[in-house]
Amino acid sequence: MYTKFIFNLSKHDGKLLYTFNMECFMKICYKKLWVLLIQRDITKASFRKDLGLSSTTMSKLNKNEEVSMSILLRICEYLDCDISDICEVVRN
């Protein structure tokens, strides 16, 4: 994973301010998860209910945003699969 770190130093009202930005050149993709659910005839609604996932977590999964490792491991346990079966890292 390539990450670009940007540090800025500025002055405001006589005080020095440090700001930090991070730009990541890779992202997560859950396309494999959705394909696996279709192959196993599992709806997103039953998937969410069975795992007790919040609507926020489902939204993050749908938008290919990061979710916690504990959530990913729960999904793997539920589907009896490896983490590489539900997600992959892709370059931006």
Question: What is the top-level CATH class?
Answer: Mainly Alpha
* Proportion of residues in helical segments: 25-40%
The separation of the N and C termini measures: 11 Å
- Strand segment count: 4
Rounded mean pLDDT score: 87
CATH architectural name: Orthogonal Bundle
Assign the CATH topology: 434 Repressor (Amino-terminal Domain)
Instruction: Give, in spatial order, the strands making up the sheet with the most strands.
Output: 1-2
List the secondary-structure elements in sequence, H or E.
Answer: EEEHHHHE
Overall body shape: elongated
In the CATH hierarchy, what is the superfamily?
lambda repressor-like DNA-binding domains
Which key terms come to mind for this protein?
30% strand, two-stranded antiparallel ribbon, 434 Repressor (Amino-terminal Domain), alpha+beta, 92 residues
Brief synopsis:
The chain has 92 residues and is of the alpha+beta class. Helix content is 39%, strand content 30%.
Detail the topology: elements first, then pairings.
Elements: E1 3-12, E2 15-24, E3 26-29, H1 31-39, H2 44-51, H3 55-62, H4 69-79, E4 88-91
Notes on the structure:
With 92 residues, this protein is an alpha+beta fold. The protein has one domain (26-91): 434 Repressor (Amino-terminal Domain) (Orthogonal Bundle). The chain has helices spanning 31-39, 44-51, 55-62, 69-79, and strands at residues 3-12, 15-24, 26-29, 88-91. The strands form 2 sheets. A two-stranded antiparallel sheet has the order 1-2. The chain has a two-stranded antiparallel sheet with strand order 3-4. The longest helix is centred in the last third of the chain and has 11 residues, at 69-79. It is elongated. The mean pLDDT is 87.
